[in-house]
Write a structure and sequence with these properties.
The chain is α+β, with helices and mostly antiparallel strands. The protein has three domains: 4-68, Uridine Diphospho-n-acetylenolpyruvylglucosamine Reductase, domain 2 (2-Layer Sandwich); 73-186, Uridine Diphospho-n-acetylenolpyruvylglucosamine Reductase, domain 3 (2-Layer Sandwich); 241-328, Uridine Diphospho-n-acetylenolpyruvylglucosamine Reductase, domain 1 (Alpha-Beta Complex). 23% of the residues lie in helices and 28% in strands. It has helices spanning 30-39, 93-102, 198-205, 211-225, 246-255, 273-279, 306-325; strands spanning 4-8, 20-27, 46-49, 55-57, 61-68, 73-78, 82-88, 127-128, 131-132, 137-144, 150-154, 176-186, 234-237, 243-244, 261-263, 269-271, 286-287, 290-292, 299-302, 334-336, 341-342. Bound molecules: uridine-diphosphate-2(N-acetylglucosaminyl) butyric acid. Residues 128-129, 196, 225-226, 236-237, 240-241, 260, 272, 274-275, 278, 283, 296-298, 332 line the site of uridine-diphosphate-2(N-acetylglucosaminyl) butyric acid (EPU).
């Protein structure tokens, strides 16, 4: 465990934003974390980073980056139907998915290939293809940066919602490090196949459905649509899909009659932000060092201008969306400036 000064974070964020951290420390054991919290330059702000896949670094960071690299996956309990699996926060999310699939455990196949670490997964309640982390989540353990105090939070205490949890609110954001997450997985698979192209893709494969096949299908759909960050630096969906009430939907339909919308249980509607951005003509457009991805308009690419350029592009898009539809697209990733993280 060693604090290094003036470290470039380019290789630590999938947007490849080339900014520096005043101090950087990578932590691979929990004991080192507690030591690092005591020995860090106390006056400086801290930023916890996992895989750096949902973060927009807009300038050098005048603080301490704590890189959570704590490893380990263990089966902690089982009964006839379920297994309880605890993973350390620094494990790559997809490595945990593969660990489960290799053992025939089901529940996270649809979340295959999501970039980032296990410790970051609860913060935004990662989700894809009809499954969200909260569907399999049991609890997490976290350590408070200011005090080293350890807490445990179960599913209800995390207040999960669409791309949201209590860890995104002012009370928790940036103040805790998630050191482990416990999931409950099924021994007998229950597949979620209703979303988008999954069924067509499964039919084309003509194989017996297993957690491995389900994962392979998800991986191939993702690879078709979402750019590989090592080739085209990006941080996944840049915007959340907006949720509107029926009056707002009716108004938006006046401008975009075909707007793709999914009714929610609470009577509101989730709109496909990618479709909207696409309709407004932004797909493939470049703006001062950033670009809207050619195949999926929700994804913004760093074309050399870094996090700042990507944020500027997102503002241009939002100006258009607001002028046309009267709504604002909320960014999905966390924005980080010189001294602090910016809450959204
Ligand atoms: N669409 C377009 N043009 C585009 C993009 C999308 O017409 O440029 C249309 C699609 O054809 C589809 C609809 O819009 O009919 C929705 O698109 P898609 O199914 O690709 O999903 P999404 O709403 O764009 C969400 C998540 C993704 C997740 C996929 C699959 C959000 C913000 N994004 O995307 O999550 O992988 O569903 O479940 O909820 C992420 O969070 O980083 C992420 C990639």
């Amino acid at each position: 465990m060693k604090f290094t000064q003036g470290v470039s974070l380019k290789g630590n964020n999938t947007l490849a934003s080339d900014v520096k951290a005043a101090y950087f420390v990578s932590i691979s054991r929990e004991v080192d974390l507690l030591r690092a919290l005591k020995e860090r330059p106390l006056a400086l702000p801290c930023l916890v980073m996992g895989g750096g896949s949902n973060i927009v670094l807009t300038s050098d960071f005048d603080g301490v980056v704590l890189h959570n690299a704590i490893q380990g996956i263990e089966l902690i309990r089982e009964d006839e139907r379920y297994v309880w699996v605890r993973s350390a926060g620094g494990v790559e999310w997809h490595a945990l998915v593969q660990w489960a699939i290799r053992r025939g455990f089901s529940g996270v196949e649809n979340l295959s290939l999501i970039p980032g670490t296990v410790g970051a997964a609860p913060i935004q309640n990662i989700g894809a293809y009809g499954v969200e982390l909260c569907d399999v989540f049991v609890s997490l353990e976290a350590i408070e940066i200011a005090t080293g105090r350890r807490i445990s939070r179960d599913v209800d205490m995390c207040e999960f919602a669409y791309r949201h949890s209590v860890f995104k609110t002012e009370e928790y954001a940036g103040k805790w490090i998630i050191v482990s997450v416990t999931l409950k997985l099924q021994k007998t698979p229950r597949y979620v196949t209703g979303y988008g192209e999954i069924e067509a893709e499964l039919a084309a494969r003509k194989e017996e459905l297993t957690p491995q096949l389900m994962s392979d299908v998800i991986v191939s759909i993702r690879q078709r649509k979402l750019p590989d960050p090592s080739v085209l630096p990006n941080c996944g969906s840049f915007f959340k899909n907006p949720i509107v009430d029926k009056f707002e939907l009716a108004k938006i339909k006046g401008t975009l009659p075909g707007v793709i919308n999914y009714p929610l249980d609470d009577g509101r509607y989730k709109l496909a932000a990618g479709w909207i951005i696409d309709q407004l003509g932004w797909k493939g457009r470049e703006f001062e060092g950033a670009k809207v991805h050619d195949k999926q308009a929700l994804v913004l690419i760093n074309q050399g201008g870094g996090g700042k350029a990507v944020v500027n592009l997102s503002r241009k898009i939002n100006e258009d969306v607001f002028a046309m539809l009267g709504i604002y697209l909320e960014p999905e990733p966390q924005f980080v400036g010189r001294k602090t993280t910016v809450l959204l």
